Amino acid sequence: MTAKKLPKCDCLNWCGDDPWLATGKAAHCDDFKAKAKAAALFESIAWKLPEDSMPADNVVVLGFFDEQNEGEPVWPCLRFDGRWLIADGMPSDPPKAWAAMPVGPRNTPWMKVRREA
User: How far from each other are the two terminal CA atoms of the chain, in whole angstroms?
Assistant: First the structure.
């Protein structure tokens, strides 16, 4: 995390910009830690229309289908040889919109393990 991306802190020292943090002589307050943890859980999804762009073949994406598709409008899917398949391998009509798969929470112990692997 760079200083520009840190959440604002309500403590008197505004520990999001305290130079002592880098030396280990100061620690973030509980308010700052809670805001940083909450910020790690948010992720935006940018939907694209198939007529504007298509994902590469064999790349799993989120597909938005109409609600009549098994009652669930969003499914993981991919294009294989120009045809759309839902995650279970069943052929499907093209989605109404698609988006890259979300990455998931950042700055969690699991993500740190994933990066080291």
Answer: 21
pLDDT tens-place string over residues 1-60: 444 455 666 666 566 666 777 777 777 777 777 777 777 777 788 999 999 999 999 999
Question: How many whole angstroms separate alpha carbon 98 and alpha carbon 64?
Answer: 6
Distance in angstroms (rounded) separating the CA atoms of residues 51 and 49: 5
Calpha distance 70→93 (Å, rounded): 13
Q: From CA 68, how far away is CA 97, in angstroms rounded? A: 15
Q: CB burial class (10 A; 0-12, 13-18, 19+) of residue 113?
A: exposed
Q: Read off the pTM.
A: 0.60
